[in-house]
């Protein structure tokens, strides 16, 4: 399976700070799968930037949409 393959798995995603000062991405999927992923704050910022870049690339492939909320004149 690659990142571009479609799958039929439903999952919940939660993101928040931990009491230890980390950022946790918590994935809960069908079948009782629970995956807590803890990151240093700087790593979490890098991940957020990668998600934003991927979203922009996906938007471009889909043919447009909002571009950062900027209006064209």
Features:
about 70 residues, alpha+beta
Please specify the SSE layout and strand pairing:
Layout: E1 11-17, E2 23-29, E3 33-39, H1 41-62
Antiparallel strand pairs: 1-2, 2-3
Structure description:
By secondary structure, the chain is α+β, with helices and mostly antiparallel strands. The chain has 1 helix and 3 strands; from the N terminus they run E-E-E-H. The chain has one helix at residues 41-62; strands at residues 11-17, 23-29, 33-39. Strand 1 and strand 2 form a beta hairpin. It is flat, with a radius of gyration of 16 Å.
Give start-end ranges of low-pLDDT stretches: none
Query: Strand percentage, roughly?
Result: 25-35%
Structural class: alpha+beta
Looking at the structure, what is the overall shape?
flat
The strand line-up of the biggest sheet is: 1-2-3
Order of helices and strands: EEEH
Cα distance spanning the termini: 43 Å
Question: How would you summarize this macromolecular structure in one to three sentences?
Answer:
The protein is α+β, with helices and mostly antiparallel strands and 73 residues long. The chain is built from one helix and three strands.
């Amino acid at each position: 399976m690659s990142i571009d393959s479609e799958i039929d798995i439903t999952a919940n995603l939660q993101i928040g700070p931990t009491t230890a000062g980390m950022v946790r991405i918590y994935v809960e999927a069908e079948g009782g799968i629970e995956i807590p992923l803890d990151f240093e704050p700087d790593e979490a910022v890098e991940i957020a930037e990668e998600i934003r870049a991927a979203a922009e690339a996906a938007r471009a492939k889909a043919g447009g949409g909002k571009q950062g909320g900027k209006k064209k004149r």
